[in-house]
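Structure ticket #2291
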Amino acid sequence: MPRIRKSGEGGLYHDEKRDLWIGVVDVGLNDNGGRKQKRVSSRSQSKARDKLRALQTEIDSTGSPLGNKTVAAWSEYWLANICEPKMKPQPFRTYRSYTNNWILPAIGRKNLKEVRPSDLRAIYDKMKAKGLSSASQLKAHNVMSSMFEAARFERLVTANVTKDIHRPKAGKTTRGTLSPEETLRILQAAASRPDGSKWLVSLYAGIRQGERLGATIDSVDLQAGLFTVRWNMVEANYKHGHEGECSAKSAGRCPTKQLIIPDGMEHRILKGRFILLPPKSNEARTFPLPQSLLTALEQHLAELSLRPNPYGLLWPDSDGMPIDSRHDQQQWKALLADAQVAAEGVTTHWARHTAISDFTAAGVPDRTIGEVVGHKSPGVTGNYQHVSSKDAVDAMQKLSDRRAE
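Resolution: structure written out below.
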């Protein structure tokens, strides 16, 4: 009686008619109860045997053959079904950009299981040759790591190839900051501008641009002297609003388009693509306000109450609508001009960097700085949100004293 092969076992035979060596592996049963088989072939017996062993290894590792899905085919599914529903808009756009601009041109046509560490090194080398920084190479690595890890979960590969190569190391960069003299001139100029309180809070507490644009009236507690960062304003991505073909090539032009909101994430929809999501850490943070900021915010809130403000934003445009990032940058440039500070290359991020730098110069501990600005640097112990409010009050006072010198 012939021996019955178990699933995963294989046999090798020669097809004389086609002059091929064929390896066969049983991979389970079909819907009718018959055997499902996977075949490999080669004109060389040794090559056919190697292919058969590789197929058996795949089955032993994952329970089924890996298949021949390309990086391009997998990335399309991964971006649309795994990344986009769960990621915030800007990180998703970053993932999509690195995938389309660097990963797919290099390895898009390769089968997932055939990608080797040398293929990844070639991507980093090309990025370096094009003048991209090591930080950009690290981002590309992180994108591929996430992509191949998801493929491993789906049993499309036996291992994550990015684990077999050293991660690119991001070099240290010097962040732009304002000098004490420039900061004082900007603070003085801001005091006479309608949007001045926005820049005072930015220069004292280092809030991010999205946190500034997404701040709401209830962020300010004048009685307690506190400011709470609850929201981060972002521009959401669109998706087509119906199944099947659409005459519009891009989702943004679809007549039934819908905003993509990360699954299960707290949010508020403003106007158009503008939505409010939790800040970067996904947790609200509260910091104390020095008297100068309290006074400025109290005056601002009184003036704001006389203007249209349908979304309850703390710093809306003159018509009550959200301010986009470009307009915010234009307002920053106008403030620099009023303060007679050279604006070339000075973005709104400089306000955040300056606040962090000045806190450090004033002798404020890193952990307390993290409480105020919401910045988890490698040198800071986690859970900085739980630093005592007294430490934060002392930090704000030190910064106020430093700027009053």
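Closing remark: Residues 134-153 form the longest helix (20 residues).
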